[in-house]
Structure formats: structure tokens, C-alpha cells
Amino acid sequence: MKQLLFSPAGRLNRASFWKATILIIIADLVAGVLCKILGGAIPNQATEDGAYNVTGVAALPFNVIVFAFGVFSVWAGLCIAIKRYHDRDKSGFWLLIQVVPLIGAIWYFVETGFLAGTPGPNRFGPDPLLRTGTAYGAAA
Q1: What is the pLDDT at residue 131?
Q2: Other CB atoms closer than 10 Å to residue 55's CB: what's the count?
Q3: What pLDDT is attached to residue 20?
Q4: Which pTM does this prediction carry?
Q5: Domains in the chain: how many in total?
Q6: Dihedral of alpha carbons 62, 7, 106, 14, sign
Q7: Between 20 and 30 A from 137 (CA), which of 24, 42, 44, 88?
Q8: Which long-range contacts (CB under 8 A, 24 or more apart) does 91-98 make?
Q9: In this predicted model, what pLDDT tens digit does every residue of 51-85 receive, in sequence order?
Q10: What DSSP letter does each residue of 57-121 carry, written as one string?
Q11: What is the pLDDT of residues 7-62, one digit of tens each?
């Protein structure tokens, strides 16, 4: 898990990419639920639109949760995206395609989520689908 989410080295196949992406989304949902629970437990003021307004020391748990999960999400997301581009035999700098409005996000989504990786080893490492003693693409 540590290698999957926190290291940009190596390659990552589509199935592992989607599993890691779903794991990050679930972790972010857990952070949201924790903040909601804390909102009911910590003294706060509700604004006119029903939102919480927590200030001072009471806001510290919210800030810690949001910061920790934000760092986790961004770093893990970058690592899995870089490894996915590596599987496509492209540099991790291809992530910058996302700064192109609309087209960049679509390009990223299609390339990392749906296109197959390079068969066999490439400059970033061995094929993540190739298992010892089996033919390429065969289930182990």
C-alpha cells in the first residue's frame, strides 16, 4: 500500500489505478464525515445558511483533519497518476496537461483511466501485468 500510494517510481496498471483512486475518494469521504461529526461535538455558531462557523482553538481539529487528508489526497493522487503515465511510457510531466482548460482534464481521464499501458518492460520498469511464469496478459 505504501508503494502504491506514496511512491512515484515504477508503473501502475489501469485496475490498480482505479482501486487507488477509489481508495483516495473513500478517505476523503471519511474526512468529511469526521468533520461533520466534530461539527456537532464542538461548540460552534451556525450561520444563516446553516453552515458551521468555528473559530479559535476549537477550529484546530477541523484544520488538522482537512490539512492531513488534503496532503494525503494530493500526494497519493500525484503518485498514482505519475505511475500510470509511466505505464504509458510517458514522463510524469504529462500531468501538466491538466492545466489546459477542459481538454486537459478529458485527456488525463482517458489516458490514465482507459488506455492500456505499454506491453512489456519500458524505461520506467517492468510490465505490471507480467507475472513470473505466465504469458503476457494471462491471469495468474
Answers
A1: 63
A2: 8
A3: 95
A4: 0.81
A5: 1
A6: negative
A7: 24
A8: 92/8
A9: 767 777 878 888 888 899 999 999 999 999 999 99
A10: GGGHHHHHHHHHHHHHHHHHHHHHHHHHHHHTT--GGGGGGGGSTTHHHHHHHHHHHTS---SS-
A11: 999 999 999 999 999 999 999 999 989 888 887 777 766 777 877 677 778 788 88
Give the domain extent around 10: 2-113
The gap from C-alpha 15 to its chain's centroid, in whole angstroms, comes to: 14
The answer as to whether 47 is a domain residue is yes
Residue 16 contacts by C-beta under 8 Å, 6 or more apart in sequence?
4, 80, 128
- Residue 89 belongs to a domain: yes
Q: Is the dihedral of CA 102, 108, 113, 119 positive or negative?
A: positive
User: How do 45-46 and 52-53 pair as beta strands?
Assistant: antiparallel
Give the up-direction half-sphere exposure of residue 6: CA atoms within 13 A in the CB hemisphere: 5
